[in-house]
């Protein structure tokens, strides 16, 4: 069976990014173009929908929703942080770090965004970037009450001489 949407369709195109499908038809002088979003996020998606999917154990759905929200004009920092979180969890560390750093540009996310960017950079083997972000996080308030020195995400940094200097400057964690 053919979908009613496709009946009478005499043109089909997919956007360059693969996120939209365009169906066109022409009957005499009348033309019709239908755009179908393929990203799976319903209209009206809110950041809390994406966070709910992530906290509800559906990181794939959360990623789809955060990606959709990131396409909006001026998405809030929490969207970038959430997208970074979903990507980091599935091992896409370089892309996750980019989004965490975007979140860190907002004063409300500078500490957590920088810290998570450091973790993602370290997991991805980008040690210079990891140290730069960790230093920013420590300056922004990650301190001895946060067990940053024991974080497995930062393990790649511990054998680097810069690690000892950070520990000396920022104290021992508990």
A few lines on this structure:
The protein is mainly alpha-helical and 174 residues long. It contains seven helices and three strands.
List the helices and strands and how they pair.
Blueprint (H helix, E strand, L loop, with lengths): L10 E4 L5 E8 L2 E8 L9 H9 L3 H12 L6 H13 L3 H12 L5 H14 L3 H14 L20 H10 L4
Antiparallel strand pairs: 1-2, 2-3
Helix pairs in contact: 1-2, 1-3, 2-3, 3-4, 3-5, 4-5, 5-6
Q: Uncertain regions: pLDDT < 50 for 5+ in a row? A: none
Give the distance, in angstroms, between the N- and C-terminal Cα atoms: 65 Å
Rg, alpha carbons: 22 Å
Average of per-residue pLDDT values: 85
The helix count comes to 7
Q: Would you report the number of β strands?
A: 3
Basic shape: elongated
Residues in helices, as a percent range: 40-55%
Topology pattern, helix = H, strand = E:
EEEHHHHHHH
Which class best fits the helix and strand makeup? mainly alpha
What does the largest sheet look like? Answer: 3 strands, antiparallel
Strand order of the largest sheet: 1-2-3
Strand-residue proportion = 5-15%
Explained architecture:
The protein has 174 residues and is mainly α. Helices cover 48% and strands 11% of the residues. It contains seven helices and three strands; from the N terminus they run E-E-E-H-H-H-H-H-H-H. It has helices at 47-55, 59-70, 77-89, 93-104, 110-123, 127-140, 161-170; strands spanning 11-14, 20-27, 30-37. Strands 1-2-3 form a three-stranded antiparallel sheet, with no helix packed on it. A hairpin with a 5-residue loop joins strand 1 and strand 2. Helix 1 (47-55) packs antiparallel against helix 2, helix 2 runs antiparallel to helix 3 (77-89) and helix 3 runs antiparallel to helix 4 (93-104). The longest helix is centred in the C-terminal third of the chain and has 14 residues, at 110-123. It is elongated. The protein starts with 10 loop residues before the first strand and ends with a helix.
């Amino acid at each position: 069976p053919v979908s009613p949407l496709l009946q009478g369709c005499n043109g089909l195109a997919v956007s360059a990014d693969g996120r939209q499908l365009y169906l066109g038809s022409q009957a005499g002088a009348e033309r019709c173009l239908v755009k179908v979003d393929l990203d799976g996020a319903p209209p009206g998606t809110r950041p809390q929908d994406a966070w709910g999917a992530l906290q509800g154990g559906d990181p794939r759905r959360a990623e789809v929703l955060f990606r959709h929200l990131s396409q909006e004009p001026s998405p809030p920092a929490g969207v970038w942080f959430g997208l970074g979180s979903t990507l980091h969890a599935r091992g896409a560390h370089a892309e996750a770090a980019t989004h965490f750093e975007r979140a860190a540009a907002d004063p409300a996310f500078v500490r957590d965004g920088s810290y998570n960017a450091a973790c993602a950079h370290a997991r991805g083997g980008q040690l210079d970037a990891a140290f730069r972000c960790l230093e920013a996080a420590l300056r922004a308030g990650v301190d001895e009450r946060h067990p940053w020195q024991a974080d497995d995400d930062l393990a790649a940094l511990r054998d680097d001489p810069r690690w000892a200097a950070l520990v000396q400057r920022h104290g021992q964690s508990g």
